[in-house]
Amino acid sequence: xxxxxxxxxxxxxxxxxxxxxxxxxxxxxxxxxxxxxxxxxxxxxxxxxxxxxxxxxxxxxxxxxxxxxxxxxxxxxxxxxxxxxxxxxxxxxxxxxxxxxxxxxxxxxxxxxxxxxxxxxxxxxxxxxxxxxxxxxxxxxxxxxxxxxxxxxxxxxxxxxxxxxxxxxxxxxxxxxxxxxxxxxxxxxxxxxxxxxxxxxxxxxxxxxxxxxxxxxxxxxxxxxxxxxxxxxxxxxxxxxxxxxxxxxxxxxxxxxxxxxxxxxxxxxxxxxxxxxxxxxxxxxxxxxxxxxxxxxxxxxxxxxxxxxxxxxxxxxxxxxxxxxxxxxxxxxxxxxxxxxxxxxxxxxxxxxxxxxxxxxxxxxxxxxxxxxxxxxxxxxxxxxxxxxxxxxxxxxxxxxxxxxxxxxxxxxxxxxxxxxxxxxxxxxxxxxxxxxxxxxxxxx
Length: 445
Fold this sequence. Notes:
Alpha-Beta Plaits
């Protein structure tokens, strides 16, 4: 039975730069996928593109591409295009040409960026209501910086069918980076509910990189050589069954438990995991260890996809800053909390009251509430955070940490790193849009 080996070398923008190279060198893979886009990454990329029209994509991809065997048969699928797939593809084209791979076409998938059409779509009856809160988009319309639909596998399959060796997309659903090559190579139709469900499960398992090979594993002390953790490979058969593996000679662990933990990662209803391709069923997935660091997975049929795409909207939501100081000595938690209160009281006295603020004594139960800890640890980290629509008010907050060195409780240290940074806040607004209103586009260069 024909099998396709798909390795995922990146789970987010900023992930291990060596993992894709090791997968390509040792994993015997047919396809390398690279997943760069978290929900709010798109807003960061949108602002980059506003400042410089040549930017707006995950630049790490280009550094990785230079180190890959791009003159060989390996195919690459990535959403590194972000807000600017064409610019990303132009850079990639130059890298391929310089390496002598002039005959390898690059496919570009666009159509996910709905911001230029947002008012048109609103006028046509698309509401973009917040699916968590029910709020109208009108409450934040003037602050929206990015609006992207999660496209499905079909345009990636089209790019591969037209001969693309590398496919660069904007926002697509994470699992589709795996579903598309499996469907293309095995000749599946995207309405084959059992096989597409299986490929969706495979894509979900490997989309976060090392999380399925021992990263974040509950029994982390049992994971060998986590410092050299191997990234995952989905070895997919024509009937939809598949194995999860990692390159030989790498650290990490693949077991029934590591796979099941990742299977439930970011899942609401396991029996109805919504993707652009399918309403996937994770509830009846079967996972069996068949060898050391090799797990076999089978899954049931899913159900047809809904008629809507999920949409990720990011909007400006003021400013925030967060500063930390080390507090040591007797009654450290009490001193830390009092010092944080002093910061906010001093600011309120001069007229700054913040939309949101928080004082934490980290090490005394703030991060793990209701978990038993020593009642009076000898040292804690004070963290004070504020959020407000006024940048001036937030900037003034950053000036109140250093004075605690001589005007606060005893035992304050860690103040030599300078004032905390002020960061603009981009909030997340999940919505839906009818698929009929979105037009995916595939181009080759």
